[in-house]
Specification:
The chain is 13% helix and 30% strand. It has 2 helices and 19 strands. The radius of gyration is 29 Å and the shape is elongated.
């Protein structure tokens, strides 16, 4: 084919194509550019400024994202939490398993590998990218009933929510949980100023089922968050009962006048059933509803701690023996 004829035919096709395009025939809709993966921000736990009231949820407790997106959890409270996805495991490890505090897995999660942040608190963050569509359950290994659902859609699917909507939903739930924690103080069941002390308290008390989603991290001798000191006579037996449905606690006395001992919170009970300040005493772990009693045989002012919650939640009490 000579060059002139080729140009003539080619120009004819080009003109025809332009005419068809102008008339709408044979046109195609341009493919939109692929949407960049998004990072979503959620929260693990919440606390009042003094750490006395703790909200024990993921905020919000459900989120829908697309494959390829990343979720970043923040941990603003003094109470530690974990972000844990079980992978092939059928159930979470128990809270006293040494592995619970340690991170596991990588920076992505597709359902095939046990993955966990380990213990995080105090402003730390943790991120996971979800490359595969599916529905995934997130657990906090410390607090029973604290879980979150992540629905991962196919990449490019329209989102059912915005980050602003998630933030608003989370803020409302946080405020509600902290208010419920404060209101649980009205359920204090013992005589104020007596010898029976609440080692933590939550709505519905220890028997709440399912466990409450908030808690008060204080030793309480009355129905106020500042009632952390009790005054008793020499020879009095003081009893502590864990009135929270969602937290373990301990009642632990060091030797009076000495630095408080560093102990594993899961240490077994130790020491005598009387206290005069000369020997350390530890209740061991008090699970919801469990009690511990100690008789005070010598006048003095004695400070005690919850081994789980003394450092960051200020769960420290005082017994004044007269």
């Amino acid at each position: 084919m000579n060059t002139l004829r080729y140009l003539f035919i080619a120009s004819g096709f080009l003109a025809g194509g332009m005419l068809l395009t102008a008339c709408g025939g044979g046109s195609t809709t341009p493919t939109p550019p692929a949407r960049a993966p998004q990072t979503w921000h959620v929260q693990a736990g919440v606390a009042s400024q003094d750490q006395a009231y703790q909200g024990l949820q993921f905020y919000p407790n459900a989120i829908t994202i697309d494959a390829g997106d990343t979720v970043t959890w923040s941990f603003p409270a003094g109470e530690p939490h974990t972000v844990t996805l079980l992978g092939p495991r059928s159930s979470p490890p128990p809270p006293n398993d040494p592995s619970v505090s340690q991170p596991a897995g990588g920076s992505t999660y597709d359902g095939s590998t046990y993955t966990s942040s380990g213990f995080l608190l105090g402003g730390k963050t943790y991120s996971l990218t979800f490359p595969k569509a599916g529905t995934y359950k997130v657990y906090c290994l410390i607090h029973g009933g604290m879980d979150q659902t992540i629905v991962v859609q196919n990449a490019g699917t329209a989102y059912p929510q915005t980050q602003t909507a998630l933030d608003s939903q989370a803020a409302s739930a946080e405020q509600n949980d902290l208010q419920i924690a404060a209101t649980s103080l009205t359920q204090f069941p013992y005589t104020a100023g007596g010898a029976h002390i609440a080692a933590g308290i939550s709505s519905g008390l220890a028997a709440a089922n399912p466990p409450a989603l908030s808690s008060v991290m204080r030793f309480l001798d009355a129905a106020t968050v500042n009632s952390t000191s009790a005054t008793v006579a020499v020879g009095t037996t003081v009893t502590w009962t864990n009135l929270s449905s969602n937290m373990p606690h301990t009642v632990t006395f060091g030797v009076a006048g000495q630095s408080f001992p560093q102990m594993n919170p899961f240490s077994p009970p130790s020491g005598p059933n009387t206290y005069d300040g000369t020997q350390a005493v530890n209740s061991g772990v008090l699970m919801p509803g469990q009690s511990f009693s100690l008789t005070f045989t010598k006048a003095g002012t004695y400070t005690y701690h919850c081994l789980f919650h003394d450092d960051t939640e200020n769960m420290v009490g005082t017994i004044v023996v007269q």
